[in-house]
Design goal:
CATH architecture of chain A: 3-Layer(aba) Sandwich
Helix content of chain A: 25-40%
Radius of gyration of chain B: 20 Å
Shape of chain B: globular
Oligomer: heterodimer
Strand order of the largest sheet of chain B: 3-4-13-12-9-10
CATH topology of chain A: Rossmann fold
Structural class of chain B: alpha+beta
Number of domains of chain A: 1
CATH superfamily of chain A: von Willebrand factor, type A domain
Distance between the termini of chain B: 41 Å
Chain lengths: ~210, ~375
C-alpha cells in the first residue's frame, strides 16, 4: 500500500425500530456524505469509507473503499439490536483492513468511527467489545444516540464522544451526516494532532444535535 | 484573493506507463491555489511578540510579513509565500526551502513550516520546524522557534550538547512568553523542530551537534555512501501522531534525550526534512542517497513511488538554487499534500562523491 488512508467506518443500527423513515434517512445521509466528500480533493485522495450494519447480526456491507470508488449501499431494517456483534465486526475490520506504521511503511491515519443507534442492545456480549475499544483506543469514535429511546449510557461505555440527535426526522439525519462530512474533512485537514488519547476536536454540532457531556 | 486551478504542471508522470491490465484509476482530485486569506501576523500579534523575542527575531518576522504582504495578486506566486535560503562559503553550500502544501493552498492558508540557515566562515547552522496542523498560530510558532534556536546556535561560544539544549530552552521560553503576550494557550504555537550546527573539529573532520523534537528526519551523508540518522523521529501506531511539540512540558526532556555531538571524518552532506517530505519518501534514510543525487545532479525521473516530479537542474549548477529546491519540493504523491521543507548542507566534495541516481537503484 502506498497511499496513507483516513479510514472512516459507519456502524449503523438496522434493527426493526429503524424501519421506515429512519433507515431511508440513513441511506440518504450516506449518499449525501459520499457526494460531499467527492467535492473535497484531500478526501478524494485519502478518505476511505466502510459501512457496517447490525440487526440480528452484523455485516460489513461495504468494505473499506476509497471515496471515488464507493457505492452507497442498499440497507434494510429488521430484527434485534445485536450491538455486540457490530462492535466485534468493527474490531475485526480494523484487524483485517488497517495498516499500522512500521520501520518500512507509514501507516493509515487513526480511523474515524461513527456509531448510530436508536435503541438499547439486545445481546449480552457488547460490554466485552466496548471495553476492548475503550481500552485499546484503536480509533476516534463518535457515537450518536438517535431519538429518545437510544441508550446514551451504553454508548458512553464505548467512547467519551457521544452526541444526541433528539429527533429522528430526515432533516435531523441530514444535519448529522453534514456533521460527519465536516468531521472527515477537518480530520484530513488537521492531521498531525497528538496521539496521547486526548479527545479529538469535533466541528460544532448542527442545530438539533448536542454533545453529551 | 486569487483562485486558480492547480499551478503544478509535473512531467514524468508514472501514469503514462500503466499497463492496460491495471484497473481504471478514479478521477483525480481537483486542487485550487488560493492566496492566504488572513494576514500572516496581524499588527497586534506582532506587537505582542516583539516585546518577547528581541529585535533580531522581531525584524525577521516583520521582514517576512512585508515579503508575503505583496502576494495577494491575480497569480499566486508560491515562491513569494515560501522561505528560501541559499548561502555558500569555500567549504560548504547551504540551501533551504519551505513550500506551502496543496492542502493549505487549496483553502487559502499559510505554510506552517519554517527554516533558518546560517553559514559563517567556520560554523554552519540549519533549523527546520513544522507547525502543528491543529494549532491556530503554529505558523508563528515554527517561525519563532527556528529563529530563536538558529540565532542561539550561531552565537554559542562552543558547539556542545549544553549549547543545543540552551538554544531549545530559549525557544521554549520565548514561545510560552509569546503565548502569554498574545493571550492564547501555549499549545496554539505548537511546532516540531530539527536542528544542526557544525564546524571543523580538532581532528580534521567536522564536529556537529544535532537534536530533534517531534517528527521529521535529520540525516548525515558520508563519503562512502552511508547514511546515518542521529535520532529517531516521534511516531506512533498511526500516521501523523506526534507526542510532543515545542513548547509542551516534555520538550526539554525529549530534546536532551535526542541531542548528540558527533565528530565525523567523512561528512559530505546534512539533510533535514519536515514530515511533508519524510512521509512521501518513507523511510527517508533509505531514499536520502537518491534525494541527494537528484539535488546534486538534477532530477529527470520521479523518485521512489512518487506519482510525478518536476524536472529540475542540479542545485549546484542552478543560478537560483533556492528556487530550484522549491521546484524540486513540488513533487506529487497521492494523499501527500502537506507543507514541505528541506534544508541541505553540501560539502564542496559532494559534486564528485555523490553519484548520479538511476531509477533501478531506488527503493
Amino acid at each position: 500500500m502506498t497511499t496513507r488512508r483516513l479510514p472512516v467506518y459507519i456502524l449503523a443500527d438496522v434493527s426493526g425500530s429503524m424501519q421506515g423513515t429512519p433507515i431511508e434517512s440513513v441511506k440518504s445521509g450516506i449518499r449525501q456524505l459520499h457526494r460531499d466528500l467527492l467535492g473535497d480533493p484531500q478526501a478524494i485522495e485519502s478518505a476511505y469509507l466502510s459501512i457496517i450494519t447490525f440487526g440480528n447480526s452484523a455485516q460489513q456491507t461495504v468494505p473499506l473503499t476509497e471515496v471515488a470508488m464507493f457505492n452507497p449501499p442498499e440497507l434494510t431494517a429488521g430484527g434485534t439490536t445485536n450491538f455486540g456483534d457490530g462492535l466485534r465486526m468493527l474490531i475485526d475490520s480494523f484487524d483485517r483492513e488497517l495498516v499500522r506504521t512500521t520501520a518500512d511503511q507509514k501507516g493509515d491515519w487513526r480511523p474515524l468511527v461513527f456509531i448510530l443507534s436508536d435503541g438499547a442492545p439486545t445481546d449480552v456480549d457488547w460490554p466485552m467489545y466496548a471495553q476492548q475499544l475503550r481500552e485499546r483506543r484503536p480509533a476516534n469514535i463518535i457515537a450518536v444516540a438517535c431519538g429518545d429511546q437510544a441508550d446514551v449510557n451504553v454508548l458512553k461505555q464505548v467512547t467519551e464522544n457521544v452526541i444526541l440527535m433528539q429527533e429522528m426526522s430526515p432533516d435531523a439525519f441530514r444535519a448529522f451526516f453534514s456533521f460527519v462530512s465536516a468531521s472527515v474533512k477537518q480530520t484530513s485537514q488537521k492531521v498531525g494532532s497528538v496521539a496521547d488519547g486526548s479527545a479529538i476536536t469535533l466541528p460544532p454540532p448542527p442545530p438539533g444535535i448536542t454533545i453529551v457531556p | 484573493m486569487s483562485d486558480a486551478q492547480s499551478a503544478a504542471s509535473p512531467v514524468g508522470s508514472k501514469d503514462e506507463s500503466l499497463s492496460s491490465a491495471e484497473p481504471p484509476q478514479p478521477k483525480p482530485a481537483t486542487w485550487t491555489v488560493k492566496s492566504p486569506v488572513e494576514p500572516w501576523c496581524p499588527p497586534e500579534v506582532e506587537a505582542a511578540i516583539a516585546q518577547v523575542v528581541g529585535h533580531e527575531t522581531s525584524d525577521r518576522l516583520r521582514a517576512r510579513q512585508s515579503l508575503v504582504a505583496g502576494s495577494h495578486g491575480a497569480d499566486v506566486d508560491e515562491s513569494a509565500l515560501s522561505q528560501i535560503y541559499e548561502l555558500h562559503t569555500g567549504a560548504w553550500r547551504v540551501i533551504g526551502a519551505a513550500r506551502r502544501g496543496r492542502r493549505h493552498a487549496h483553502v487559502g492558508a499559510w505554510c506552517e513550516d519554517a527554516v533558518f540557515a546560517h553559514l559563517g566562515e567556520s560554523r554552519g547552522v540549519l533549523v527546520v520546524a513544522d507547525g502543528a496542523g491543529s494549532a491556530a498560530w503554529s505558523r508563528l510558532g515554527s517561525a519563532i522557534a527556528v529563529d530563536m534556536v538558529g540565532a542561539a546556535l550561531r552565537d554559542a561560544p562552543l558547539l556542545d550538547s549544553a549549547s543545543m539544549n540552551r538554544a531549545i530552552e530559549a525557544a521554549v521560553d520565548a514561545l510560552r512568553q509569546c503565548a502569554s503576550a498574545m493571550n492564547v494557550a501555549p499549545r496554539t504555537l505548537r511546532t516540531t523542530l530539527l536542528a544542526v550546527a557544525w564546524e571543523p573539529s580538532n581532528s580534521g573532520g567536522v564536529r556537529l551537534v544535532t537534536t530533534q523534537v517531534g517528527d521529521g528526519v535529520l540525516v548525515l551523508a558520508h563519503s562512502d555512501g552511508r547514511i546515518t540518522q542521529p535520532a529517531a523521529g516521534d511516531a506512533g501506531e498511526w500516521s501523523g501522531e506526534v507526542h510532543c511539540f515545542l513548547p509542551d512540558d516534555e520538550t526539554m526532556s525529549r530534546a536532551r534525550a535526542a541531542t548528540a555531538v558527533h565528530d565525523v571524518a567523512d561528512l559530505v552532506a546534512v539533510v533535514l526534512v519536515t514530515d511533508g517530505v519524510e512521509d512521501a519518501l518513507y523511510p527517508f534514510a533509505k531514499h536520502a542517497p537518491a534525494v541527494l543525487s537528484q539535488l546534486v545532479h538534477g532530477a529527470s525521473v520521479p523518485l521512489g513511488n512518487l506519482t510525478a516530479q518536476p524536472v529540475t537542474p542540479s542545485v549546484l549548477a542552478s543560478g537560483s538554487p533556492g528556487l530550484t529546491l522549491l521546484e524540486w519540493l513540488a513533487f506529487e504523491k497521492r494523499g501527500e499534500n502537506d507543507d514541505r521543507t528541506l534544508a541541505v548542507a553540501l560539502h564542496h566534495s559532494a559534486s564528485h562523491v555523490i553519484t548520479p541516481w538511476a531509477p533501478s537503484a531506488s527503493a
